[in-house]
Amino acid sequence: MVASSSSLKLQDLIQEIREAKTQAQEREVIQKECAHIRASFRDGDPLHRHRQLAKLLYVHMLGYPAHFGQMECLKLIASPRFTDKRVGYLGAMLLLDERQDAHLLITNSIKNDLSQGIQAVQGLALCTLSATGSAEMCRDLATEVEKLLLQPSAYVRKKAVLTAVHMIRKVPELSNIFLPPCAQLLHEHHHGVLLGTIMLITELCERSPAALKHFRKMVPQLVHILRTLVTTGYSTEHSISGVSDPFLQVQILRLLRILGRNHEESSETMNDLLAQVATNTDTSRNAGNAVLFETVLTIMDIRSAAGLRVLAVNILGRFLLNSDRNIRYVALTSLLRLVQSDHSAVQRHRPTVVECLREPDGSLSRRALELSLALVNSSNVRAMTQELQGFLESCPPDLQADCASGILLAAERFAPTKRWHIDTTLRVLMTAGTHVRDDAVANLTQLIGGAQELHAYSVRRLYSALAEDISQQPLVQVAAWCIGEYGDLLLEGSCEETEPLQVEEEEVLALLERVLQSHMSLPATRGYALTALMKLSTRLRGDNNRIRQVVSVYGSCLDVELQQRAVEYNTLFRKYDHMRAAILEKIPLVERGGSQADEEAKESKETAQLSEAAPVPTEPQASKLLDLLDLLDGPSGDAQHPPPLDPTPGGALIHLLNLPCAPPPPAPIPNLKVFEREGLQLNLSFVRPPGTRTLLLITVTATNTSGGDVTHFICQAAVPKSFQLQLQAPSGDTVPAQGGLPTTQLLRILNPKKAPLRLKLRLTYNHFGQSVQEIFEVNNLPVETWQ
């Protein structure tokens, strides 16, 4: 009693702490008061215990340790006095959590308080359970909370619904307990209870496929509730800026989005309502924009009609004209999601998207850049590339790499002509050459080499650009390569596509020497320039003494790569001068990868058509090959089928110019299921290319049959040191629910020793609101994967 009388009241303690001039004075006051509080707890003063704990909670809020008050919280919760319970439950919510075993000691007290008929005490117990309840507490108290869901008091029902939401998040297995009361709660007229019920049903549907199937029967009832909100309103006290209860509208729309996803009947039921909400909601206020945005998200996720999707895109287009930057940002993000499925509808808003590139806000301009690049196609590539190049010249440095790479990729995919492709790439290199991808130099040299009619045009453009600026290293590398290959065309001066350009040999050599001597030139750039000088020794008509002198100087360069090149070139001058012209002749470039792949696909298609023209199912492999040769060499109408040959290789090889008989294709490697949990399944399929038996291609396929999407999905792999592993980029990071489009990822494993393969996988993803990480080893791979 003496300790409590000498301690301060809560108001006095707050005032004294605020009056402290320094942090040291504040610590002194708090330490002194904490000593009084400890003494009061030891004396067991029941009348002033709640006051001491209230002061301790204030000290805890200031960041000072208050763990010694945890057991006092339990004593106050067990007290029959309401003033004690109120402070005790508040202390439990602030001082206790799942990491401490003490929180389990209040389970019986909460159970007793929930069974009482005092609404205020039941509300305190429910608030504490929903804030700090662990999985064990939720399992023990689920039945008590389920009983309170149908209590007469709306105050208790509202808090019980919110507690049930917390329980479902902690223990999804408890969903069956809360399914029956939800049907009755949907008829609730109390705003708080109805809003909480919608949240509870949403959590149930996201975590339980059975609950999702159950609540799809209630879609008409949810549609009726939302239509009533839109037409007549719920109550004036819940309206915001003329929008009837936007919080309840948003929650219902989110629930409808979950119920209508991948379900035709439910989507059809809500189509008319969504159109009504989209057309009748006021957009002059932020509350109306929030409802409209949720409506758009729902239209995008369900199986809505085509006209409704166009309406959703138009709403997002109106959002782009809004003065609020946040609204413009969510519009750009949503359009980026829609551009793959509704490309033509999003294209109508292309001018507005391009205008957003000029936004001073970095996040907005980045989103606008991503969307602009996604909108590029073969019909608008010229106009869009011109806009993007204008943006590249003035965009912030952190966006230059993305913009430059995007322009180069778009030009590679949709270039109308080779000259336009070359001009576009050169302009990007001149503007932001230091920010382009590593393969930009190789791609451009391959493009120029494959366009023989543009060699003279390209070398003149590059020479002019190099004479103006030698700081952009990728541009300098391409220019040096092109001057070395086609320097003779540069000196001829006969190019109809450019203005007349008179260049002397000495000017070309001086420019390359300038590149070699520049402090801005990288070692790789100097290597390009030195090789270009060496090639010009066979393409120029003048004396090569100047070139020999430059090459000999770099024979003692500190850079090993450059020194080795110079030494080899010097040796070529001194000992093998008669072979120099043949060695340094123009490089024959192979066709580009894309066109080559197209030609291979075309050839395989023609071969398939030819093989189907005269099928002989019963003949052995060698006979089929002879038939194919006949079809290719002679007219198909006069082709005569030879008699069936011996299926053994010896008899057939004599007739095929002694070529070895192609071995039969290897048997397919069976697929392997390596993981399954809560509807998420992981399968491995294997392919060993015939030409490279040490290479194994593994396709990881993730499918999801549960009711909730698997998001932020990442698959990582590891192999023993004797193997080489390369992970390709996955097709996406979301595995759609209900058996949607699977997510795939390719693993390339090189096994030079043909050792038994062991694979370790690590999966990280979010499912039903929980973060999951799984690490497991796959040891049962088929022997065909490594033998």
TrEMBL record:
<comment type="similarity">
    <text>Belongs to the adaptor complexes large subunit family.</text>
</comment>
<dbReference type="Pfam" id="PF01602">
    <property type="entry name" value="Adaptin_N"/>
</dbReference>
<dbReference type="InterPro" id="IPR050840">
    <property type="entry name" value="Adaptor_Complx_Large_Subunit"/>
</dbReference>
<feature type="region of interest" description="Disordered">
    <location>
        <begin position="594"/>
        <end position="619"/>
    </location>
</feature>
<dbReference type="InterPro" id="IPR002553">
    <property type="entry name" value="Clathrin/coatomer_adapt-like_N"/>
</dbReference>
<dbReference type="InterPro" id="IPR016024">
    <property type="entry name" value="ARM-type_fold"/>
</dbReference>
<protein>
    <recommendedName>
        <fullName>AP-1 complex subunit gamma</fullName>
    </recommendedName>
</protein>
<keyword id="KW-0175">Coiled coil</keyword>
<feature type="coiled-coil region">
    <location>
        <begin position="3"/>
        <end position="30"/>
    </location>
</feature>
<keyword id="KW-0653">Protein transport</keyword>
<keyword id="KW-0813">Transport</keyword>
<feature type="domain" description="GAE">
    <location>
        <begin position="667"/>
        <end position="782"/>
    </location>
</feature>
<dbReference type="InterPro" id="IPR011989">
    <property type="entry name" value="ARM-like"/>
</dbReference>
<keyword id="KW-0472">Membrane</keyword>
<dbReference type="InterPro" id="IPR017107">
    <property type="entry name" value="AP1_complex_gsu"/>
</dbReference>
<dbReference type="InterPro" id="IPR008153">
    <property type="entry name" value="GAE_dom"/>
</dbReference>
<dbReference type="InterPro" id="IPR013041">
    <property type="entry name" value="Clathrin_app_Ig-like_sf"/>
</dbReference>
<keyword id="KW-0968">Cytoplasmic vesicle</keyword>
<keyword id="KW-0333">Golgi apparatus</keyword>
<dbReference type="InterPro" id="IPR008152">
    <property type="entry name" value="Clathrin_a/b/g-adaptin_app_Ig"/>
</dbReference>
<dbReference type="Pfam" id="PF02883">
    <property type="entry name" value="Alpha_adaptinC2"/>
</dbReference>
